[in-house]
Task: inverse folding
């Protein structure tokens, strides 16, 4: 999951990945991620993991949810707002 998000941000030119302080240099104006958790008891572990990876978890919302894929206990959905690539 984290690898896929970092690839997506890297393709946008945001080489700092999930660290918000690097977003402006990559043209990212805002980002928010929803973390769907299968089990509530994994929340502390997931929060710690994201805080370590991102420096903060301010851009994350945590939701207890039925996850369709039985092999996953966590899914992360992201919304990233970038700067326009060209002006008219």
Result:
């Amino acid at each position: 999951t984290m690898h896929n998000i970092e690839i997506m941000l890297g393709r946008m030119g945001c080489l700092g990945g999930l660290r918000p302080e690097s977003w402006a240099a990559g043209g990212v104006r805002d980002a928010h991620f929803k973390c769907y958790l299968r089990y509530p008891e994994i929340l502390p572990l997931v929060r710690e993991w994201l805080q370590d990876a991102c420096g903060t978890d301010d851009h994350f919302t945590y939701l207890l949810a039925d996850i369709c894929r039985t092999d996953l206990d966590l899914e992360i959905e992201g919304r990233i707002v970038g700067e326009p690539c060209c002006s008219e």
